Amino acid sequence: MAEVQSVAPLTNNRRRLFVAAAAFAQRLIAPSYCQHCHDYCPSSRLLCDRCGPALDSVPLPAPSELDAIPVYSSGLHQGVLAQSVRALKYSGATHLAQPLGQRMRMALPAALARIDVIVPVPLHAVRLAERGYNQSALLARTLAKDLRIPLLATALRRQRATLPQAHLGREQRCDNLRQAFAPADITPGSRLLLVDDVITTGSTLRSCSDALRQAGGQVVCILTTTQAPLPPADASRAPTDASVALAVP
Ligand SMILES: [Zn+2]
């Protein structure tokens, strides 16, 4: 009996030592890092204890409309969500497409209208070659997997390079995107979910939606990761071109 009592603490110590060594080995062999801040993440989760709750706590904005098409976003373009989108788009953080895409799915209503195909906003071939990937297509791929809806990344083609929209005014954005997209591969009558990373004025998504409609497709709804915070209401600065107004009910 005395022998057993003397062995038990030693066994527990050995077990603790083994668990610590296994965790250390795990970090060396297959390190797990937070997909956002790159700190060590001690579980199989994608985000650490700081970033996970920060992303989860971002409130879903109210749905809006673009030419009577419902627009859903997983949050306003600010804080950890905006940082994650920028990292995905400009810093090669393609692994963020998974948690961001999963969050986008939460923004969709439970009773979603029938959708045949998910279509991402395309990049021009030159920019795609520079960046190496289309962030909207990566987000759309995550959604397609989660929703079990086919992804059609070739439904739209960006037929001419455009200036980055972020540096243009409202009217310049419309001019910049005129005839920028052409439908390449769409079955007439298809009901489509159009996906992009960010919606600001909606001019890019409107241009895509118009091209798809001209090819016989129907954009049932639009889903973006983030939505630019709306400017404060000011009648004197109301857009003169109603086509660039993002309506929020
Ligand atoms: Zn983190």
- End-to-end Cα distance: 76 Å
CATH architecture group name of the largest domain: 3-Layer(aba) Sandwich
Number of strands: 7
What fraction, in percent, of the residue positions are helical?
A: 25-40%
Strand order of the largest sheet: 1-2-7-6-3
Low-confidence runs? 1-7, 233-249
Write out the distinct hetero groups bound to the structure. Answer: zinc ion
Number of domains: 2
Task: Work out the strand percent.
Answer: 5-15%
Task: Determine the mean pLDDT.
Answer: 79
What is the CATH topology descriptor of the largest domain?
Rossmann fold
Largest sheet: 5 strands, mixed
The global form is elongated
CATH class of the largest domain: Alpha Beta
Features:
249 residues, alpha/beta, Rossmann fold, 2 domains, 5-stranded mixed β-sheet, two-stranded antiparallel ribbon, 8 helices, 7 strands, elongated, disordered N terminus, binds zinc ion
